[in-house]
Amino acid sequence: MKKWSETYRAYKDQENSSSGSGEAAASRGFSLPLSPSLDDNLAKIEQAIGVNGDLSVRNFLIANRFKAALVFLSSMTDQNGIRENVLKPLMQWQEPEIKDEEPLREHLLDRLWNETIYISDGQKCSEISRVFDLVSSGFVVLLLDQCEQSMAFAMRQIEKRGIEQPQTEQVIRGAREGFIELLDTNLSLIRYRLQTPDLKIETGPVGQRTQSRVAVCYIQGITDPELVAEVMLRISKINFDGIIDAGYIEQFIEDQPISPFPQIQNTERPDKTVAALLEGRVVIMVDGSSFALIIPALLDQFFQTIDDYSERFIIGSLVRFIRLIALLFSLFFPSLYVSVISYNPELLPTDFAVAISGGRAGVPFPAVLEVFIMEVSMEILREATIRLPQMIGGALSIVGVLVIGQAAVSAGLASPITVVIVALTTIGSFATPAYNVAIALRMLRFPLIFLAGLFGLYGVMIGTVLIINHLLYLESFGKPYLFTLLTGMRERLTDTLFRAPLWWMNRRPSHLHPVDATRSPYGETQSYIDGIFQSKENSNEQEAENLNDPNRDRRR
Amino acid sequence: MNRKQKISTTQTAIVVASTTFGVGVLSFPRSMAEAAGSGAPLMTLCGLAAALVPLWLIILLGLRFKGQSIFEYGQLLIGRWPAQAANLLLFLFFAVSSALSSRQFGDVLSTVVFRKTPIEVSIILILLTTAFSCRRDIVKFSFIHIFYFPFIFFPYLLLMLISLKRIDLLSLQPLLGNAPMKFNPGLFQAASLFLGSFIVTILIPYMKKPESALKSGTYGIFISGGLYILMVFSVLGIYGSEETKQLLYPTLELSRSISLGGGVLERFDAIFIIIWFVTVYTTLYSSYYLASFAFSKLFRFADQRLTSSFLLPVLLGISLLPQDVFRERNIVQSLEFSGLLFLTCYPLLLLIISLLRRKGGVTHE
């Protein structure tokens, strides 16, 4: 360990010596081949990335005479594995009987790879810049003296947290597993749920600096090839220095960035991801992010959860209706209240209208201002509760309810009915499963409140028409955002407001243009109820077809 | 990637229905009662039948020239400059009629809802709302109609059904009316309600099955015409023809007189105005869209995105020209008459010429 003062001096010296970026790039030797001398190569590597505290260079001899070195980042590699599977066999390796020096020197790298090293994944590289890339992405690079090639072994090991239940998407009935930050773990979570050779995963780096691995997953033979191509095209166009989270990818590839509504769904749940893949969607995952992106996403998808499907269909459908009502509450309730109170009190039954105006008697503000103040304070409370540590969070919500509810009424700041309205609105917005849609709708209610204050019901209607027209205009990867509610008759009947029995949903959503449109082999239904209407033998002797068979007929 | 989206037959019918069911809803029973007395429902039916003629003409033309609208094949048939002159007339008709619809809308709002708000505000609001949504392609245009159609159709149907129990059949008799029917304003007024169906000319190129356009256009007219007839029927059945003549907005009066759900909604009229707003919006949207489309064709722009914004102040100006409701009504009547005449004769002329010159159709392909 160097002292910090020495580190500082070394840093300053380095800065002075390599003033100007051109020199710095030249010193890293971009696209230069490896030089035959080991010392030369090591010097270059030390010069370029050697200042890092975690770069390790281990010099040793192979068969007592070939000089070799292992270069790796100690923070990203499996130290134990290097010792056991690379260093130990290499140092113990004995020269074969034939003392033919020159050929051995030429073939040394191949022979080492073939005979001694216990690593499953490795690659050769002969450019020095490639060595830098490999080292910084967690490879162990073996350099040999008098050899213009090097060998890189995949020995990445990164600390990871355990697989936990996702906090943002809790379900009653469904898997308790959620994605974590490591891409490989996430892919394995998908793989074991979807054991078909048709599941394709394309990976590649995105981001000039971070080189984050981005994986595009789809099922070949189900997903529309044009959709996959479009996704890959859009990803390839991303030109940015760093991809920190899947959300970065989302913002770069979505159709309409200037919109409050998300056009790509994100999820932490592997089961939801697998269901989306099976429907013929494309999934994007990023190393370092625990969210998968589902493409394309239509509006109704954001109101579906996995337990709509795992629970029986009547319950699932009813729950969806409740969610729709909650959505309408969270968007329209405050503005409707304002416009009815200020412009059209005659709409209410007389007794109720009298009770409301009695409650509002002590409030000095107009209804629109009163509702606005209460809604804003509710939003502040909600935002504050997210940031607070869990210990304090519970306490704060109690204080918030007391202060904002009870005290505001007795202080004459708000009327009791306003508090009821605001509470219903807030609770309604939390019933929406997807946070990003819920917050979009929550924010849109503020312009609606203002329009209600200005023009009453007519204003609310104008605002609604504008919102709906915007939704009708939106597209997610060329698919109309409201397709399922608008023109997709079969999708509307089976999987939007009403969740039909699973055996009725035997065709994939048509807007995804799946290669294989049917989910059950011949569109045959396999439930007990449907069996009643068929001849007995037929219903009993149904046998599931092997859907993984590549030679099977596919119906478009 | 961009799979071309198309419009289905049902969707075309819905667009036609929601376009033709529009501004006239509020005052239409009165003008029918003025023309035909208790024969108003029959007069509406005649108007419906008369309105089918221009619609069929335009659809037949559209079928002969697939992939083109009247603004294009007109030039093919009668030469560039005469066709451009006709296109200018078409543009003027739709621009003025959308301006007057927004004016009528403003009139209702300032007499019923915002008694102190200047009429300009309500007109600007609805024109702005429409202009925002005119900047999109025809498929998205049809989406808007399809989405709002249930919110128009079912409330009106509900309104009629609720009022059914109060209908006195005696006030609908005699079916032919006491005095001889005044076909001159009556038939034209009824038929001109459906002039918005001209929108099919720009829909046909985007249809999945253009050959079924005739069917969908006719169904569309039948849906909206059926609603109109039902409405005249129930308004006259409740108020009688003489009282209907006295009411400025008979349908609104109808909605005022009913209540729903045992007093949960004490009065229906505020809700009705909201629904009526959507009704006007879809109609205005179609004519505004047609106007900006025609304008863009007139000057050979790529699409109507630019022209729709440009038309906004023009339409606002035209809508403020009539000084009071009575002059406005006169202008509307003469506009409807001339529009109906032009929209029937011009396609008829084109059809005859195309038959004579053997242009378009199956043989030409």
Any overview of this molecule?
The complex is a heterodimer of chains A (556) and B (365). Chain A has 556 residues and is of the alpha+beta class. Chain A has 3 domains: 133 residues, no CATH class; 127 residues, no CATH class; 164 residues, no CATH class. Chain A is 49% helix and 11% strand. Chain A has 21 helices and 12 strands. In chain A, strands 1-2-4-5-3 form a 5-stranded antiparallel beta sheet, with helices on both faces. In chain A, a hairpin with a 5-residue loop joins strand 9 and strand 10. In chain A, helix 12 packs across helix 17. The N and C termini of chain A lie far apart (65 Å). Chain B is mainly α and 365 residues long. Chain B has one domain: Amino acid/polyamine transporter I, CATH 1.20.1740. In chain B, 73% of the residues lie in helices and 0% in strands. Chain B contains 15 helices and no strands. In chain B, helix 8 packs across helix 14. The chains are: A alpha+beta (556), B mainly alpha (365). Chains A and B meet through helix 8 and helix 17 of A and helix 6, helix 7 and helix 12 of B. Chain A: Belongs to the GerABKA family.
